[in-house]
Amino acid sequence: MPELPEVETTRRGIAPHIKGQRVSEVIIRQPKLRWPVPLELVDDLPGKVVQSVERRAKYLLIGFEQGTLIIHLGMSGSLRIVQADQEEGKHDHVDLVLQNGIALRLTDPRRFGAVLWQPKGVEHELLSHLGPEPLSEAFDDQVLVTAAKGRKTAIKQLIMDNKVVVGVGNIYANEALFLSGIHPKRAAGRISEQRLCRLAENIRIVLSRAIQQGGTTLKDFVGGDGKPGYFKQELNVYGRTGECCVNCGSILKEIRLGQRSTVFCPDCQR
DNA sequence: CTAAGGACCTGTCGGC
DNA sequence: TGCCGACAGGTCCTTA
C-alpha cells in the first residue's frame, strides 16, 4: 500500500498521538523484517520521549533526544494507533507502547518493511544517498533535466530511481507519465527539456493531490477503522488495463518495465 | 559509472 | 473444490 502519500498520511495521523509521549514498552513479536529489528530496542527505548515525527522519502523518522527510530512500510506495511491491550493479529510484528495507554503497532504481512535505530549525530546509510523530496523546492525543474541527460534508461525507471527523486512509486509514476503524455519506455535522454519540466510538475501535482485524498480519511485511519482511502481517487491508468483512455478513448495497454506493471495510453503517450 | 535481474515474504486471484 | 503459477503499492544487492 504505501506510496509516499500514504506514508505522509500515516505520519500526520500518528504524530499527534505519540509526540511528547514517553515509551513504556517495546514489543517485538517478529524481528525478521527486511533487516533484523534490533532487539536492544526492548531494553533501550523505554523511558525515552518522542520528540518529533518526520518523513524522508518513504521512511518515517521518529525522533528521540538520543537518536531516531526509522520505520519503512515496505510493500504491505501499515502503522496504526491502537489501545495497548488490543489483541494482536497474525502480522502485528512490533508495538511501541506509550505511557498514555496507546501503542503504535506495525503490521506487515510480507515483511519487506523495516524498523531500525540510528543514534544521534550521524545520518543513516539508507538515507544518505537519497535524492530530493518531490514536494520540496529541492525538486526544481533542473533535477530531471540533469538526471536525464545522456541516459538511455526508460523515463519511468528514471523517475522511480531514489537517487534522482524520492517517493515516486509505481502507481504515481504511471499516472504522472500519463498526465505528461510521455511513453513510459521512452529513453530519458531523448525527451525535451520542456516535457521534462511538465513531467516534474505532474509528479508534484499527482503526489500532493493524493496526499489531500489521504487526508480526507485520516480520522478513520487513526481511529483504527481501516486504511486511508486515497487510492479511491480517480486513477487514469493504473489498474485500468484494457479500459478506455479518459482522454481519447483508446484501449489502455500494459507492459512490464523492470518487472513492474506499466499501464499507458498508446495514443496519448509518445 | 549504468543497467538488469534476483532477492526478501505472504496473500490473493485466475486458470486448469 | 484443489492445486499451481503469476502477481502485488519497495528497494537493496549482486552481477555484467
Short structural summary:
By secondary structure, the chain is an alpha+beta fold.
Can you describe this structure?
This protein is of the alpha+beta class. The chain has 2 domains: 4-119, N-terminal domain of MutM-like DNA repair proteins, CATH 3.20.190.10; 141-264, Helicase, Ruva Protein, domain 3 (Orthogonal Bundle). 28% of the residues lie in helices and 21% in strands. It contains 8 helices and 10 strands. It has helices at 4-18, 41-44, 125-128, 141-148, 155-159, 170-180, 193-216, 218-222; strands at residues 23-28, 52-56, 59-64, 67-72, 78-83, 92-98, 102-107, 114-119, 253-257, 260-264. The strands form 3 sheets. A 4-stranded antiparallel β-sheet has the order 1-6-7-5. Strand 3 and strand 4 form a beta hairpin. Mean pLDDT is 92; it is low at 216-220 and 222-226. The protein binds a DNA duplex (16 and 16 nucleotides) through helix 6.
Supply database-style keywords.
270 residues, alpha+beta, N-terminal domain of MutM-like DNA repair proteins, Helicase, Ruva Protein, domain 3, 2 domains, four-stranded antiparallel sheet, 28% helix
Which SSEs are present, and which pair or pack?
Elements: H1 4-18, E1 23-28, H2 41-44, E2 52-56, E3 59-64, E4 67-72, E5 78-83, E6 92-98, E7 102-107, E8 114-119, H3 125-128, H4 141-148, H5 155-159, H6 170-180, H7 193-216, H8 218-222, E9 253-257, E10 260-264
Antiparallel strand pairs: 1-6, 2-3, 3-4, 4-8, 5-7, 6-7, 9-10
Helix pairs in contact: 1-7, 4-7, 6-7
The protein binds a DNA duplex (16 and 16 nucleotides) through helix 6.
